[in-house]
Amino acid sequence: MEKQKAIGFIGSPRKNGNTAILTNELLELLKDSFEIEKIFLKDYNINPCKECYYCTENEECSIKDDMQILYPKLKEAQVIILSSPIFMGGITSYMKAFMERTWHLRKGQLESKTGSYIIVGRRDIGSGKNEMEEYLSRLKVNKITGVLGFGFREGDVSTDEEALKDIQRLGSQIINLNRKNSANE
Predict the structure, then answer these.
(1) What is the domain partition of the chain in residue ranges?
(2) Contact 132, 91 (CB under 8 A)
(3) Are 148 and 129 within 8 A, CB to CB?
(4) For the chain, what percent of residues have pLDDT higher than 90?
C-alpha cells in the first residue's frame, strides 16, 4: 500500500532556522508513516492575491506563478503542516501570500485532510497562532493544535523542551488520526 503524503510548508527565509528545526523534527517523526516533503516557500515565486474574484467562478486562481506547482501538492497531501516564524507580530509574508492564494480551496476541497502548524517567536507570538488557526478552519481540514516554539538565534528552539515535547505530541496525534481514518475507510 502506498504511503499517504505529509508536507511541511515553511515560511521562513532561513533554511537552518528555528522554524525549520522544529519542522524537521516533526517530519522525522512522520517519515515511517507518511511519504514526507519539505517545501520552503522562499524558493517559489508566489505573488500576492489581486482580489480579482476570478476564483469564485472558476475554482482556480487567475495568477500563473509557482502556486501552480504547489496546488497539486496540497491536494495530494493527507497532512499539511504550516510553519512560520513571527515577524512583527504575525506570520511571514511568504506564508501569508501562500495562504491568500489558496482562497479558492476553502469550499471543502481539502476537508478530508489533517492540518496543523508550527510557530516560532522570540517572546510574543502576536497574531500568528490566530492566523494559522483561522486559515486551517477556513480550509475545513481536520485541525490539530500546533506547536509554539521560542527562539531568536539560530538553534534556540533546540533547547525549548516544551516545544520539543509538543512536537512529539503532534507527531503522535497525526499518526493516530491517520490510522483511525484509514481503519474507517
Answers:
(1) 4-184
(2) yes
(3) yes
(4) 81
Report the C-alpha gap between 5 and 99 in whole angstroms. Answer: 19
Using the predicted structure, report yes or no on whether residue 1 has a pLDDT greater than 80: no
Give the C-alpha separation, 127 to 152, whole Å: 17
Cell of 83: 510553519
Express each pLDDT in 131-146 by its tens digit.
Answer: 999 999 999 999 999 9
At a CB cut-off of 8 Å and minimum separation 6, what does 57 contact? none
Q: Strand, helix or coil at 61?
A: coil
Q: What is the rounded CA–CA span in Å between residue 89 and residue 126?
A: 4
Q: What distance in Å separates the CA atoms of residue 135 and residue 117, rounded to the nearest whole number?
A: 10
- Nearest 5°: phi and psi at 34? -135, 155
Class of domain 4-184: alpha beta
Q: Return the residue matching grid coordinates 508566489.
A: 46
- Give the chain's length: 185
- Indicate the burial class of 170 (C-beta count within 10 angstroms; 0-12, 13-18, 19 or more): buried
pLDDT in tens, 61-94: 999 999 999 999 999 999 999 999 999 999 999 9
Tell me the C-alpha distance between 40 and 59, whole Å. 25
Q: What percent of the chain has pLDDT over 70?
A: 99
Letter for the amino acid at 64?
K
Q: Is the pTM of this model over 0.90?
A: yes
